[in-house]
Amino acid sequence: MIHSVLKASRFLNPRRETLGLTIAVSDCVYRFAFSSMKEINCKVDSSSCTLAPNREPCITDSLSVSGNCTTSSTSVKSTPEIEKKYVHHVYDAIAPHFSATRFAKWPKVAAFLSSLPLGSIVFDAGCGNGKYLGLNQDCFFIGCDISPSLIKICSDREHEVLVADAVNLPYRTGFGDVAISIAVLHHLSTENRRRKAIEELVRVVKKGGLVLITVWAVEQEDSKLITKWTPLNEKYVDEWVGPGSPRTRAPSSSSLESIPESEVSRSGEHMEVCNEPHVSRDLEEEKNIKNQQEYFVPWHLPYHRAEISGASAEALAAGLATKDDNKGAVVYNRYYHVFSEGELESLTTGINNARIVDQFFDKSNWCIILEKTV
């Protein structure tokens, strides 16, 4: 019923700022979306966020429902150390600078959102600085991101947002019309977590609802770009090693923390990083690069930006960032799993209540659109 009220109000006043009634309806929709949400210690105003000592949002465990399958997802929702250190911590530290560089909308994402019916409820999982929130003013957007720093930027822009994890969305099942995940899944470090995130996107939309997902591709249009990334030395099929990982495996011969300092071949042999632009790699290494999907991608935070917060000083002291005096920047490494052709589609194979209605390659990204069928 509330969705019908929202649509009716938008027919009368498409722009919600033009009439107080529409704003009230929007607030009502927001509260309805969370009426059966899992308990989280965070409010929409990120300045009021309550975080656990490890800086992770406190979200209770639940069951994952996909089609006719009900699976316990406790281990999948436990954040591996590599994501805490090289995704969550990094984006909190670089948020203002990252946001300043993220303003252009991808044409196909913008076209998708602009084509949505009047009054559609859109969930943006991993909304970043909120550049897509409110793009279509005839729709109602609710965004979430794991980074409190990015959520504060969105909140300051008066978007409806909260801190939440992509693998454990706090929205009611079947409430939204659309869910989007733009450049998020490649930051999840296991196949199970990537699949769980897709299941969550499908769960929160109603029957006939659409889900748009984009991820970085192995097949980069600028092949030279990959040479600037640091390949990880070891890929774990199930889970990553770390104190906070759901599953503990035998210790690796080299720690994750040592990886940013050197590039490592598939054979495990460490090689010095060469900064000379014209030094060619041998053929074997080139083959390894083509087969590699796990990377650290650097983010150069200018010194004058790094001085804004003490986060960079803490990261340098903890060995989670390095200084590049030549570029005048603190260098953070972000974890990425880049997707090969067909991999994103294959993750949806076991999701019985959704079907692929479109798939395409756009600006070095693999993209799919799903429709919820049940």
From TrEMBL:
Top-rank taxon, per record: Eukaryota
Listed Basic and acidic residues bias regions: 263-282
Keyword set includes Methyltransferase: yes
Alphabetical list of Pfam families matching this protein: Methyltransf_11 (PF08241)
Region of interest called Disordered, as start-end residue ranges on this chain: 241-282
UniProt KW Methyltransferase keyword: yes
Keywords for this protein: Methyltransferase, Transferase
Domain Methyltransferase type stretches: 124-213
Biased composition (Low complexity): 252-262
Listed GO biological process terms: tRNA methylation; tRNA wobble uridine modification
InterPro entries according to UniProt: AlkB_tRNA_MeTrf/Diox, Methyltransf_11, SAM-dependent_MTases_sf
SUPFAM superfamilies per the UniProt record, alphabetical: S-adenosyl-L-methionine-dependent methyltransferases
Record-level Gene Ontology MF annotations: S-adenosylmethionine-dependent methyltransferase activity; tRNA (5-carboxymethyluridine(34)-5-O)-methyltransferase activity; tRNA binding
GO cellular component: cytoplasm; nucleus
Protein name: tRNA (Carboxymethyluridine(34)-5-O)-methyltransferase isoform B
